[in-house]
Nephrocystin 3-like N-terminal domain-containing protein (Pisolithus microcarpus 441), 668 residues
Amino acid sequence: MRETQTTVSNYSKMLDELMQQYRDCQTRDIQVNMYHVVEDLNIEGMAYAGGAGLNTMKKCLESTRKEILEDIISWINDASPDAPCILWLHGQAGRGKSAIAHTIASWFKDMGGLGSCFCFARDRQGEHREEKMLTTIARDLAGHYPTFRRALAHALVEDHTLKTTPDLLQQWQKLILEPLSNAKGAIVGNVVVVIDALDESGQHSSRKHILSLLASTGAANLRNLRFLLTSRALPDIESALGSAKHIKAMCLDDVPTELAQRDINLFVSKELDNLKEIGPMEIQQIVEKSSGLFEWARLACQFLNPNSFGQTVKERFKSLMAIPSGEGRALLDGMYAAILEGVVPKSGEPFQRFCSVMRQLLMMLEPLPMTELNHMRSLFPNEDEHYDVAIVLRFMTPVLRGIGDHTSPVQPLHASFYDFLADRSRNGAYFIDTSNHHDLAYASLQVLDRELCFNICGLESSYLSNSQVSNLPESIKKNISPHLSYSCKFWAKHLEVSQFDVSIATPVQVVMESERVLFWLEVLSLIGALGGVDGSLTSLVRWLEGHVGYETTTMSAIDGLRLLQNFFPAITCSAPHLYLSALPLSPHGSFLGRILVPKFSHLVEVAQGGLKDWPATQLVLQEHASHVTSVAFSPNGNRIVTGSRDETVRIWDAKSGDQIGSPLKGHT
């Protein structure tokens, strides 16, 4: 009996201990979950470039590029302290840089070692992805590494403006370097970050700061990170990255000819396997003709399509072999010319329609599906242009994607095709002039005039921020069409590249001198694109300069700028507060106060006091601990520098008032 009691007592004691462990685990789980919720709330709203990530459809064909992929993997896994932390993979267009980048990203994602994959694209330059690159990488790293996530959330609690600042230096220091330093030791092994096609970010000014940061000593000290960067060897990129000791350069132009031809042979054999007219001898001729350019080989396979009009496969092959041989770009140009000559006549109405549709595609600042392209075209001022783009695009499948269905954006399969069309020196017969965006500016303004309305998504309460409205993404998809979203973001960009014309100036007046200007800001708040308003309104003011009769439109644009300067945080956070807070608190004497406030009922009224005009003070810069003795603007007006008797020099963002970097110390 005593043995039984002892056994029961032991079991009871063990059960009590297990129950206590269970309760402790529950408490820990609650604490961990609470931390996750708080971290989620802190990171929420941080700028993120959607659609810029890994695309497994772009991977290398299996068993190709083996040697170079092995070299890159060896570099990534190199644990020696003097191993370079950045590998710059460069080469001319068509060498397969992106395919290698996406293959590496895919492999390391499967193994759990991919921190982030970020891709630039020529047809996405209107999104200013360069401003979101570091915030996107930071969010991706936070999704993989809890310690980094906590450090990032802490940085955003201390300074919430970091979520949306376009200042790359602040992003680099506060969102990448400092969280990585705090997470040191918790991240095991080397983490891969892929940055693909940096040369497609836009003009060299768009990547100047990115290159400066990657070449800096801060990047050299990132021991746990391995940056794989791909681009063409443009002068500004080569100048910044070519001589840094912590950057390893690898050129695809230097790959031995026999290795490149072996891989292209595998690719072409697979692509043309179903064509009985093409045997090993023809495949070898195509391989030799390609000069190591994978993009040329892909185009050649498309060119031999048996469904081509009016020619047999053998005849197409003969035409392919007749293309003049050349190096790199010249060879690609010859292929593009041959493809276009096979489907596009060089005169008459079909040629004019080809030029018109290609001009529309090249001028788009964000790719749209065929349905949306047709809608925009139906609003062009010239009715002769109102035809279905499919009559041209269905013949362009060798060089464009998104043509088979009406929901995918129409994009070039390779950026070099748009470069070919837009460069007169490379292409005389099919050159597309993109110097005047009149038609797209006109169509965008027509969309705003017809589709903008009050409370477009039917929000029921102003008590919730945009991010807290549970069904907002579905509501945006239902109520804000892709062409309306596009027009709201880019109408002023197209206006800027259009000659002044009354036919465009009149719809600008209609939008800017009515409540539609507020409906426009509402849409931008909902889709998270309010940051572009400053540039849009500034462009409009410049475009109207010197033209009589548009003083009220100019005044409305300037009022819009002041509204954003004073109420940007409220409008960004919650679209309803554009009407409930910003509008009623605008100065009585402003255009908004005089013309637009009376059009809205049940607004709060300022019974006493209030602003008569916009305050002259736009920003207050607060950090100096003593008298400020000198102030200057940078030549482009984007920065302010101040010197003080507190023995510091400080640099500020002229738009947001945020201090950039740490104070400069040393003066006495």
Q: What stands out?
A: Residues 391 and 638 are 46 Å apart (CA to CA). The radius of gyration is 29 Å.
